[in-house]
Amino acid sequence: MTGMHHMLVHFPLGLWALATLMILVGALLPGRLAELSRAALLPVLVLSLLGALAAIVTGFLVWPLEASTHSPLTRNHILMAFWSLGIFTMLTVLVWRAGEAAFDGARRWVLVLLALIGGLLFATAGTLGGHLVGAPTLFSDILGLLGWEVYTTFYSPLWVVVVMVIIGIAAGGLGLKSQRSSG
C-alpha cells in the first residue's frame, strides 16, 4: 500500500502544476492557447481533486494517524496536503461557478494568486513527502532560509501569518468593492 500512495500523489501534483500553468496562460496571454487553457481548466481541476482525495486516503491507510501526528515533519506534510487541497478546491469552485467569467476583470488575478499560492503549498507538501522517504530536495533549503526547519518546526512563521492576514483583508476589500459596483 505504501507504493500506492507514492504513485497516487503524482496525479494531483502533476494536474495541479498543469492547472497552475493553464491559469497563468489563460489569465496573462491572448489568443487561441489562452482560450483552450480556460476551456480545459475545469476538467483538469476536477481530476486533480479526485487524485488528491485518493492520495490522501491511501496516505492515512498506510501510516497510522497516531504515529504520524508525533512527527513534526509528517504533521507539516499532512497540513500542506490539506492546504493544497483547500486552495485547489476553491479554484475549482470559482471556475465552476463563474464559468467563462472566471477570467474577466479582477477575477483573473484572484485565480492567478490562488494558483501561485497553491503551487507553493503543493511544492512544500511534495518536498516534505520526499524527506519522509529519504529524498530531500533543494527546496528544503529555501524553506530553511525562510525560517522553517522541516524536521522540527510545526508552525507558520510570523511573516506567513502577516501575509495571510493582508491577503484576507485585500480579498475582502475587493469583494466588497465588487459587490457595491455590481449592486
* Rough outline: globular
Number-wise, the strands total: 0
Separate helix tally: 8
Structural class: mainly alpha
Describe this structure in words.
By secondary structure, the protein is mainly α. Helix 2 (10-28) runs antiparallel to helix 3, helix 2 runs antiparallel to helix 6 (107-132) and helix 3 (32-62) packs antiparallel against helix 5 (72-98). The protein has one domain. The protein has helices at 2-8, 10-28, 32-62, 65-68, 72-98, 107-132, 139-145, 158-182.
Helices and strands in order:
Elements: H1 2-8, H2 10-28, H3 32-62, H4 65-68, H5 72-98, H6 107-132, H7 139-145, H8 158-182
Helix pairs in contact: 1-3, 2-3, 2-6, 3-5, 5-6
Describe what is shown at a glance.
The protein has 183 residues and is mainly α. It has 8 helices and no strands. Helices cover 80% and strands 0% of the residues.
Features:
single chain, 183 residues, mainly alpha, 0% strand, globular
